[in-house]
Amino acid sequence: MTSIRLRSAIVLMLAAPPAVAQNAAPQTFTGVITDSECADANHGRMRMGDSDVECVKACVDAHAASYVLFDGKTTWELTDQAKAASLAARRVTVTGKIDAGGKRIQVESITAAR
Q1: 90-109 pLDDT, tens digit each
Q2: 85 phi, psi to nearest 5 deg
Q3: Is residue 101 domain-resident?
Q4: Bridge-partner residues for 110, per DSSP?
């Protein structure tokens, strides 16, 4: 009987979507939308184009990178890639909840920072 319960628990864990901290209030983060290849927003190494915007978009298109937020210390994965794409290489404010793993923001909004 115990092995059936254990198997059921494993199946439920594998089928569950990524967890967001229970009852967590949305937080606000300010930083630069960059790409996971140039996660610290230093595009000098790759320089995929004449500008940072071109580099970010090229890394996403050509290297299967994803849009991320770099706040000066931490690089955050973003769940809303479409909103991030329109603000590539710009300073933004992201509002959302941090997932249980602590490195991804469940995005509620992204706006240009003032």
Answers
A1: 999 999 999 988 899 999 99
A2: -60, -40
A3: yes
A4: 94
